[in-house]
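Justification of computing resources. Each target in the renewal requires a structure prediction run like the one illustrated here; the chain below, 488 residues long, is used simply to show the kind of job we budget for.
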Amino acid sequence: MHTNRTAAAGTALLLVCAMALVTPQFASASPRGVLVVDDDRSQCPAAAYSAIQPAIDAARAGDTVRVCGGTYSGDLTIDKENVSLAAGLPAATNVDCLASSAPYPATFATVQGHVWVTASGAKVDGLVITGANTGLTTTDVASGYRITRNIIEGNTALGIQLASKGDRQTVVEKNCVRRNNTESPRVGINSENGDLRNAVIRDNTTADNFEGISIAGPDIHSNVSIIGNTIMRESAGVAVSNTVGSDIIGNDVDLTGARDGVFTGITIGGGNIGLTLASNTVTGAFPGILFGRFDENSNSNIAAFITGNTVRDNVGTGITAAPAQGELPGILVNSLFLRNVTTGNTAGSGISVGAGNSGNVLIANRSTNNLRGISLNGAIGTMVAGNLMRDNVLDARDLAPGQNTWIGNRCLTDEPAGTLCTAPVPTAGLAPPAPILTSSVPVRPKVDGSRWPCLKVPYFEIDPDGTGAWSWLTVLAPDAPPGTYCGA
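Resulting C-alpha cells:
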C-alpha cells in the first residue's frame, strides 16, 4: 500500500508538471491565431501560405497574418475586424526615410499592389507597399485602423488615402511615405475622399512626394490630430480644410530642395472650426503658413489658435491671412496668434492679416529680420498687444488706422509713424512680459460638441485695458442637417 501511494503521488506530480508546461502554450496560441506567409519558404520554412490574400481569407477576427521576407504581387483586401497584417521585420523603423532607398534586404516583406482596408480595428504594420496608384486605402464605413511602421513609396498618386467613421480612433504612425509622385495629386498621406473622424497622424516621415499631408475637400474632418511629423523636400507641406476641433502640432516642415518648386508650408483652407496650430517649425516655404481659401465655396476659419510656431527663412511672408475675395467673408475671424516666432522671411512680413479678416488677437509674438514685422493690410477689429518687432525693414504697419487697437508693442519703426510702437525695445534677447497684459493666457478649452449640430467654440478676447479671457461662440457644425438654426 505504501508503494501504491508513492506511485499515485508521483503520477499526480507528473500531471501537475505537465499542466504547468502545457498551459502557457495554450495561453499563447489562444484565442488569437497567427497565420504565417512566406513566398518561397526560405525565411519561414514552416509557413502554411505562400501568398498573403489566402491567409487573410482564412483568418478569423483577431488573428494576425505574419508576412515573412519576400516580394508579394497583387492587390490585397482586409475585410475582417481586428485582423493584423504584419511583417516579421518592420520596414520603416529599419531605414533612414530621408536617405536610404530600395532595393531592400530580403528580410523585408514587399507588397507590389494596393492594400485596401475596410474592417474596423484592422492593422497594417511594417510592410513595404509599392507599385500601385494608391498604396493603402481605408474607408469611412469602418474605423479604428492602425497603419504603422510601413514604407509606402513608388505609388503613382497617393501613399495613403485615409478615411474613418470615427467611433474608434484611427492611428497612422511611424510610417515612411515617400516618392509617390508620378501623377497628380501626388500626396503622401491624404484624406480627400470620404469623412475622417477621430484620427491621429503622428511621427511619420514624408519626403519627395508633391504634398506631404492633405486633409481637405468637402467631406467632414473632425477631431483629427497631425502631430510630430517630419515633412521634407515636398513642394507643399500640410493642408487642411473643413475640420472641427482638430490639431496641427509639433511638425517639422522643411520644403528646401523640392523638385517641383516651393509652395506653402502649412495651408489652412476654409471651414476650419476651433483649429489648433501649435509648436510647428516651417522653413523654406512660400509662404510659411497661409490661411487662404482653396475655392470660392470655402467658409471662414473660426477661432483658430496659432501658438508657439517658429516660421523662419521662408520666401514671402511667415504667417499670413489672405484678404477677403469679392463678397466672401474674411478667411480668418476671432482667432488668436500667441507667442509665435517669425524671422528671416526677408521678402514679406513676419505676420500679415489681410483686409476682410476681423476680430483677431495678436499677443506676445516675436517678429525679427523680416521685410515687415506685423502688418495689418486692411484688417479691422484686431487687437495687437505686447509683441516684439525688431530689425525688420518696417516693424509695424496698419493700413486701417483707427480700426484696430495696438497696445504695448515694442518696435522702432511704424506706419502710421509714431502710432503703433508704444513700449521700449530691448537691446538684446527677448522682450519681457508686456506690463499691461496678463502674464499668461489660460489653456484653451476644447470645442464642445455635446449639443451638436450647434458647436460651442472658444475664442480669446482682450479688453482695451489689456485684460483677456476665453469666451464662447456658437457655431453651426459643417455636417448639420439643412435648415438647422443655432440662434443669432
